[in-house]
Amino acid sequence: MQESFTDSGVLFRQHQFDLPLNYSEKDGTRITVFAREVVELSKADANLPWLVYFQGGPGFPSPRPDSKSGWLKRALQDHRVLLLDQRGTGMSSPLTHQTLSHMDDAKQVEYISQFRADNIVRDAEAIREALGAEKWSILGQSFGGFCSLTYLSFYPQSLHRVYITGGVPSLTRHADDVYRATYQRVLDKNKAFFDQFPSAQRRCAEIAEFLRTRDVKLPNGQTFTVEQFQQIGINLGRSGANLPMYYLLEEAFTETVQGKALSVSFLQAMLTEQGYQTNPIYAFLHEPIYNQGEASVWSAHRVRNTEYAEFNYEPGKPFLFTGEMVYPWMFDQMQNLLPLKQAAEALAKKSDWPALYDVEKLAENTVPVTCAVYADDMYVEMDYSRETLKGIPNSRAWITNEYEHNGLRADGERILSRLMDMGEQIGNLPS
Fold first, then answer.
1. Tens digits of per-residue pLDDT, 130-181?
2. Could you tell me which InterPro entries the record lists for this protein (predicted)?
């Protein structure tokens, strides 16, 4: 494909970097990391500061944006933007069931373990040096915010400004604490949805019973279960999700010559929801992104069964959607995850994860850090974000209930503008 192209007065330039899979074995396996530079064509030769974008997930590539819209429109006013496909995603040596298929279980575990925030940040540092940038600013959305605080922990000298949206993690808490908090937020979102659409409760129960009593296949031939259906609740944490969810449920059934059936369009939509099938990093590492010297041991599954059993569907009880949690049964049910079950079990038991944050260094921070913290965030607990920021000097939070977790996508130009203004105010304070 083209190394560069222009669209609507904006230059897009591709970069590929040959980097170590494991930075402690620099003569070992190499991977390719892809990043897309974006700059206004009229400023392409100017000495502009860099802004690097870290995507949420984990396990999903950087956006493929329109030329100038949302947060990118604001960023391009005075920055050269780098959209990083974090290792294992997009065009950065993608980690899929296909790439893992030739490895035995132990090799799969060893390989997958290299795709957390610590190595994502090491990649970014290597790229910064390769591009000749003395310092740059970073913008992290969701899991990208986790990466941003890892970056700030280990390479603060490389950072000019840090902007985080919906992604200030706890620095020390176990994953169990995270899921205790987020299950409560998922209950809140369920209540809001079913309060708005009471008939949806009956429809969801009807779908669940249909799945419980029949062998229903998705378009890929995989048996569709109640547990899989519940997982579409991940969407309830995004703005404007309730109405599309209702429309989807409204059209779930169709009449056939054999009687009532789930419609083809509904089943296709359900398969499309299962991003874990094509992006297994999310399924493998969603819990290990919290682990530092400890194992998760299927944290969300344990907490659900011991403290939030109401999420376990039973006929006659209220139906509840789940959120962004991952579960061990996914590796028994989802077609592309089936061959990866043993690796998933080993990763869940792995306890020798290295530290992702340096709390002492963060307590001495001098880099301006500004964050949009969403009061009703279903994915990242506001109280834990506030707890973290109390320990980071030169950080400021804009706490708001105007947006859900996807605020940067919904109103990115305004949000980034505000965070940039806040960062300038911190930078102008007397030392």
1. 999 999 999 999 999 999 999 999 999 999 999 999 999 999 999 999 999 9
2. AB_hydrolase_1 (IPR000073), AB_hydrolase_fold (IPR029058), Peptidase_S33 (IPR002410), Serine_prot/Carboxylest_S33 (IPR051601)
Instruction: Please give the single-letter amino acid code of residue 137.
Output: S
User: What are the catalytic residues?
Assistant: 142, 352, 405
C-alpha R_g of the chain: 22
Q: In terms of residues, how long is the chain?
A: 431
% pLDDT > 90, the chain: 95
Phi and psi, residue 202, nearest 5°: -65, -40
Nearest one of 200, 272, 201 to 231, comparing CA atoms: 272
Q: Does residue 344 contact residue 399 with C-beta atoms inside 8 Å?
A: no
Q: With contact defined as beta carbons under 8 Å apart, do 162 and 138 qualify?
A: yes
**Contact assessment for residue 89 and residue 59, using Cβ atoms and an 8 Å cutoff:** yes
- List of E strands, 21-158: 30-40, 50-54, 80-84, 136-141
pTM passes above 0.85 = yes
3-class DSSP assignment, residue 148: helix
Parallel, antiparallel or unpaired: strands 80-84 and 50-54? parallel
Whether 237 contacts 379, CB under 8 Å: yes
Q: What are the tokens at 186? A: 């998922």
Phi, psi of 37, rounded to the nearest 5 degrees: -80, 135
The CA-based angle 134-136-139, given to 5 degrees, is 165
- The tokens for 315 are 């006929």
The C-alpha angle with vertex 377 and arms to 207 and 195, in degrees rounded to 5, equals 45
| CA-angle at 153, arms to 288 and 30, nearest 5° | 60
- Which residue's entry shows tokens 């959607």? 321
Q: What type of residue is 70?
A: G
What whole-number distance in Å separates Cα of residue 413 and Cα of residue 70? 5
Q: Distance (Å, rounded) from C-alpha 163 to C-alpha 379?
A: 18
Give the chain's largest Cα–Cα span.
76
CA 213 to chain centre: 34
- Per-residue model confidence as pLDDT tens digits over 339-364: 999 999 999 999 999 999 999 999 99
Which amino acid is present at 357? Y
Per DSSP, helices labelled H in 155-279 are 175-196, 198-213, 226-230, 242-250, 264-272
Whether the link from the prior residue into 58 is cis, omega within 30° of 0, is yes
For residue range 188-199, list pLDDT tens digits in order.
Answer: 999 999 999 999
